[in-house]
Amino acid sequence: DTGVSQNPRHKITKRGQNVTFRCDPISEHNRLYWYRQTLGQGPEFLTYFQNEAQLEKSRLLSDRFSAERPKGSFSTLEIQRTEQGDSAMYLCASSLGRTGTYEQYFGPGTRLTVT
Amino acid sequence: GQQVMQIPQYQHVQEGEDFTTYCNSSTTLSNIQWYKQRPGGHPVFLIQLVKSGEVKKQKRLTFQFGEAKKNSSLHITATQTTDVGTYYCAERRRSSNTGKLIFGQGTTLQVKP
């Protein structure tokens, strides 16, 4: 499978616990995005990596959230001290970034439930 | 918050009927991308529109970008049950040079067989 993969697919955690999600983008894609999607809403941008550099973070990304892409390949998104409001689908997307080919390929997402 | 508005939020049609979703912005859009998300699935890219007045077709789907680049529409002719899902328009922001997408709220299409 050469698409974007995300792990785990589902995560149930208790409030206050830390969670970490992983995204493996399409191998030749240098651009990687994290989005959050809640029920009935479109995805909302969280953060963007070009290769290993994190170039933009949304104001939605509080200081409890941190993302990394250490070698410019896979990325991790960590949420510390989870709150019930963090319950959502976390989507990762990647793109090639060349002129004219900006379509983003989304992974299946990690659904987080905070109890 | 989101700056791209989509209407309607929901649409129920009989199989074979047409369907249209509209995407509107108060500001000029750099471009518009359309995505489809099946129930339980993830967004899948359909098309990108860049030029004023642009019209593109994919089989039964017709995409339009307004002359003023402030609105866009997706029209499906003779819907089929396989068209069920949520259709999102999204602006790819050039201003920050990241290509991040700003999504509308989506239009959920239900098709009765």
SSE diagram, text form:
The complex is a heterodimer of chains A (115) and B (113).
Chain A: E1 5-7, E2 10-13, E3 19-24, E4 31-37, E5 44-50, E6 53-57, E7 65-68, E8 75-79, E9 88-95, E10 105-106, E11 110-114
Parallel strand pairs in A: 2-11
Antiparallel strand pairs in A: 1-3, 3-8, 4-5, 4-9, 5-6, 7-8, 9-10, 9-11
Chain B: E1 5-7, E2 10-14, E3 19-24, E4 32-37, E5 44-49, E6 55-58, E7 61-65, E8 71-76, E9 85-92, E10 101-103, E11 107-112
Parallel strand pairs in B: 2-11
Antiparallel strand pairs in B: 1-3, 3-8, 4-5, 4-9, 6-7, 7-8, 9-10, 9-11
Question: Which characteristics define this entry?
Answer:
heterodimer, A: 115 residues, mainly beta, seven-stranded mixed sheet, four-stranded antiparallel sheet, 0% helix, globular, B: 113 residues, six-stranded mixed sheet, five-stranded antiparallel sheet
Can you describe this structure?
The complex is a heterodimer of chains A (115) and B (113). By secondary structure, chain A is mainly β. Helices cover 0% and strands 49% of the residues of chain A. Chain A has no helices and 11 strands. In chain A, strands 2, 4, 5, 6, 9, 10 and 11 form a 7-stranded mixed β-sheet that branches. Chain A has a 4-stranded antiparallel β-sheet with strand order 1-3-8-7, with no helix packed on it. In chain A, a hairpin with a 2-residue loop joins β5 and β6. The radius of gyration of chain A is 13 Å and the shape is globular. Chain B is mainly β and 113 residues long. Chain B is 0% helix and 51% strand. Chain B is built from no helices and 11 strands. In chain B, the strands form 2 sheets. In chain B, strands 2, 4, 5, 9, 10 and 11 form a 6-stranded mixed β-sheet that branches. In chain B, β6 (55-58) and β7 form a beta hairpin. The model of chain B has no long low-confidence stretch (mean pLDDT 93). Classes of the chains: A mainly beta (115), B mainly beta (113).
